[in-house]
Write a structure and sequence with these properties.
The chain has helices at residues 8-11, 16-25, 38-42, 48-62, 80-100, 119-140, 167-177, 188-193, 198-209, 235-244, 272-300; strands spanning 3-6, 30-34, 65-70, 104-107, 143-147, 150-152, 159-161, 182-187, 210-214, 251-253. The protein is an alpha/beta fold. The chain has a single domain, classed as Divalent-metal-dependent TIM barrel enzymes (TIM Barrel). The protein is globular and about 45 Å long.
């Protein structure tokens, strides 16, 4: 089990190679490549494959791998032409991620419609959307991770449910697509924001559907994307559930902050090495807790 983190916050402060270096020196086994902002711009030219190969060679030299990636988001807009361009960017990010060595790339579901008013329509749109990505998965040798989401209530400005916010619907999506190439990437923080029971959610998905994680903490109100143990999520219970289902993926942080709060985005560049080292220590602790609970489950059987 690799311990990994997104380099999103670091890429806002420095260039991508320096971001990977800081991550490697902090002790992480791997990094999650975010394809938005200037990182997506880096691969916008015709030489994107060569740039990806160069970046992978650089990371290999540091002894760190790219285990996971995040496609451009959102995956859709009300405007059809904009959505078509986003789709092209998603496909390119899948190719670049595969060159970097990533085994899975998180791709947000289509959710430009209000979920409360269009759940069935969004379901049909997303099954079609994820099935359309399968040929590219096969071509590039990379899995797509469908992610559970949330939306804003336009009247109250509070967070409300969206696509795959409930375990039964997440499972329904993956089962309807029915491909080894489309798997579940469970955002732990997002589960908390819709008041769902996280261990129960994990158990309902099981280890065959649940293949990747976005790990961060929240206060059950805002999408903080802060470090575990700084919010209110019971990560001991989370690790217990992951161990009990025999989770086989990696521990991947998405504690890069959201808007003006969070963890990694709160520090200046000079303090990021220390901040990343602490985050890595937390990751190794979580990995050990998952493994301990997996061992306990095996012994109980």
């Amino acid at each position: 089990m690799l311990v990994s983190t997104t380099i999103s916050a670091l890429c806002k402060l420095t260039d991508i190679k320096d971001a990977i270096r800081i991550t490697a020196e902090a002790g992480f086994d791997a990094f999650d490549m975010p394809f938005f902002g200037k990182t997506m711009e880096l691969f916008s030219g015709d030489d994107y494959v060569e740039k990806a190969k160069d970046l992978r060679k650089y990371a290999d030299g540091l002894g760190i791998v790219c285990n996971q990636a995040h496609a451009p988001c959102p995956s859709s807009r009300p405007d059809l032409e904009t959505t078509k361009q986003i789709y092209k960017d998603i496909v390119r990010s899948m190719e670049v991620a595969s060159v970097l060595g990533a085994k899975i790339i998180a791709v947000h579901p289509v959710q430009h419609l209000k979920y409360a008013e269009h759940p069935d329509e969004l379901f049909e749109m997303n099954v079609k959307f994820y099935k359309s990505l399968i040929p590219y998965c096969e071509k590039f040798g990379i899995r797509v991770g469908c992610e559970n989401m949330w939306q804003d209530n336009s009247r109250t400005q509070a967070i409300t449910e969206s696509t795959c916010a409930r375990a039964w619907e997440f499972c329904k999506y993956l089962d309807a697509v029915n491909s080894e190439w489309i798997v579940g990437c469970l955002d732990i923080g997002h589960v908390s924001l819709v008041n769902a029971d996280i261990p129960e959610f994990i158990h309902k998905m099981g280890n065959k559907r649940l293949r990747a994680l976005h790990i961060h903490d929240t206060d059950y109100v805002k999408d903080l994307h802060t470090m575990p143990f700084l919010g209110k999520i019971d990560y001991h219970a989370v690790c217990k559930a992951l161990g009990e289902i025999g989770y086989e993926g990696d521990v991947t942080f998405e504690a890069d902050g959201y808007e003006n709060y969070g963890y990694a985005n709160q520090f200046p560049l000079e303090l990021m090495p220390a901040a990343e080292k602490l985050l890595c220590s937390v990751g190794k602790y979580l990995a050990s807790e998952i493994e301990k609970n997996r061992k306990n489950e095996r012994e109980a059987i």
